[in-house]
Amino acid sequence: MPDELFFDDPADLKRARDAVFAGTLDRIFDHHPHYRKVFAERGIERSDIRGIDDLAKLPITGKADYVGQPADFSLSLPASFDAEERVVWDVMYTTGSTGDPTPFTSTSYDFLNILAVNRNMLRLRGVTAEDTILNLFPLTRHPHGAFARAMNAAAAYNIPIIAAMPGAPSARHPGLGNRTDDVCALAARSGATILWGVPSYMRKMLGRAEELGLSMPSVRLVFVTGEGFGEEARQDLVDRLKRLGAADPKISVSYGATEMQGGMVECVPGAGYHNPAPLQFCFEAVDPETHALVADGEEGLILLTHLDRRGTTMLRYALGDTARLTRAKCPHCGALTERLVSVPTRRDGFVKIRGMLVNPQALADVLAADSGIADFQAIVDKEDENDQFSMDRLRIRLSSSGEAIHVLGLRVAEKVKATTGVMPVVELAAADDAAFTGRGWKAKPIVDLRKKPE
Question: 121 in a domain, yes or no?
């Protein structure tokens, strides 16, 4: 079979995709709890879906469908199937509708596919056998993929990786995390050629490294994901790295998704976000209201279909963003695969903070349930209000119903961290604070004051 990224003929690629998808469809129709119910209700039979051209016959799967009954989205294969398809290899988590993270399960079969996805991401980004990665993603309470999949990507590509372990993952093991100064020192002495992480933290780390007089001449590539990232932010990172001694650093942005256990990536800046595994994923763009397919290059709600999965498996799953999608061969790298050629825009009401997808209503619910809080307001802004590229900050402004603020503040911070994955700054406000008067901010669970990237 040809390289899955570099088919010459779209018809050959379609035949290969349909052949792989057939096995997944057979298992879905017989062993997928959610879709078996949906298909029975709608009278959809296996013979109705012959391949990816028939996807439009299927209903769209929304986030609420998945987070409501996540176990129903995993194939329930009997013992007659190969153990590789049934054994759970790992579980990652995505944001839940109620605040409880939603599990995304991968079998051993899926994990091998995940390695292939991440290997292809590195290929598209121009990684070589001489590269070394510095993993700047933090450990989180619920595994959501970034830290682990960076490690897996290096394994799949047979290159070294160093885990910087920024932050404090656990009070029980204070030695496991590293302060920013320690991360800077590690970056300087490691000789890593690739930095990989959330852009706002990376910028903070590079700024501190400059203050410390360190140098990073070996860095040639920077991989960023998880936050809005415009061209000004790209140039800012390039300038910072050059001041640290990097000769010609390139920034590669990805559009990550838990449901991919990887992301769509750029081959070069401005080339669009490539589907790194066209034999594993199929993307569509539809009108957000009518759900009719839109033409290539037109803005639409982005849908993901798993062509080759055995754990959590989804058909026409709405990722929650709109973008312009094209199926044309990439003029830069020659890959024949779907690409998003505009920056995805969030539509489902969720908010990204430091790379974490936060449900505003879940945050509001956990705050409203605390009897020690008289009133509250959640605000997302930047650590430095005069610097649009500084790290995101989640502030919880609250008035106390009489409880000591230091006790209330610690409890609220822990509850918010458990709900959102983000440690907030808790601020005491007077009961007659403008945020609590019923005008403006009061109506919104989260007020986002960040300037959007252009």
Answer: no
Q: Is residue 118 in a domain?
A: no
- Which runs of consecutive H residues, i.e. helices, occur in 302-381? 360-368
Contact 118, 156 (CB under 8 A): yes
Q: Tally the domains of the chain.
A: 3
Q: In angstroms, what CA-CA distances link 85 with 79, 108, 117, 143, 203?
A: 10, 6, 18, 22, 41
pLDDT digit string, tens, across residues 102-126: 999 999 999 999 999 999 999 999 9
Q: Using alpha carbons, select from 35, 99, 94, 113 the residue that is nearest to residue 280.
A: 113
Res 297 pLDDT > 90: yes
**Structural domain boundaries enclosing 239:** 126-258
Long-range residue pairs from 162-167, CB within 8 A, at least 24 positions apart, any chain = 162/132, 162/133, 162/134, 162/135, 162/186, 162/190, 162/192, 163/135, 164/134, 164/135, 164/136, 165/138, 165/139, 166/136, 166/138, 166/201, 166/205, 167/138, 167/139
- Residue 447, beta-bridge partner list: 379
Alpha-carbon Rg of the chain, whole angstroms?
23
Last residue of a domain, one of 214, 230, 258: 258
pLDDT of residue 440: 34
CB 384 within 8 A of CB 449: no
Q: Left if phi > 0, otherwise alpha if psi is -120 to 50, otherwise beta: which for 308?
A: beta
293 lies in a domain? yes
Single-letter code of the amino acid located at 344: P
Is residue 351 one of the residues assigned to a domain?
no
DSSP annotation of 297? T
Q: Quick: pLDDT tens for 148-200.
A: 999 999 999 999 999 999 987 777 887 888 999 999 999 999 999 999 998 87
Instruction: Name the pTM for this structure.
Output: 0.80
**Residue for token pair 């055995």:** 310
Per-residue three-class SS string for 207-256: HHHHHCCCCCCCCCEEEECCCCCCHHHHHHHHHHHHHCCCCCCEEEEEEE
Check which CATH number belongs to the domain holding 59 and give it: 3.40.50.12780
Are the C-beta atoms of 313 and 23 separated by less than 8 Å? no
What is the model's pLDDT at position 226? 76
